[in-house]
Fold MFS transporter.
Amino acid sequence: MWFAGQAVLLVLVVPYGYMERDLTPFQLGLLFAVAVLGALLGAVTSTAVGLRLGGGEAGRGGAIVCSHSVNALGVETFRQARTPDELQAHTNTTLRSLNRAVIVVVSPGAGLLTDRVGLRPVLAAAVAIFCASALTLAIQPHLDVTVAPPAVPAGWCQWGCRVCWACRVSQS
């Protein structure tokens, strides 16, 4: 579901920035650069936040907060913990193919719908899709499952690297 909302945004963010917000190309590029920094921060901290929040209600709240940027993280973590190793590749490939197919189908539809009804109503639909995605994530029973953090080998930080600039661990 999240991929449907993302497909709408992929099509409409640039026209919305130019036509509705009167952004210059520089301003739009700066906006995307800041978004990338936010994504990087989320990627660097998501494991620590997930381990700190754990499962149950706290994990559910964390999953909702992170729904837009790392929606798949919570679902994939639990799915991978529950899927036998020999089925991991098959399961991940199938789901990634389905997710990409949603983008291929929804993006052109979003563009055509925008031509008919305008930018704002279609962006409002994307917001509704993201809210529905967060809601379904919040009520899923799999979020009550806890996944034990992996054992950390000696000399490695909690994120699995030998020299980690994020947690400032430097042990060789």
Notes: The chain has one domain: 2-170.
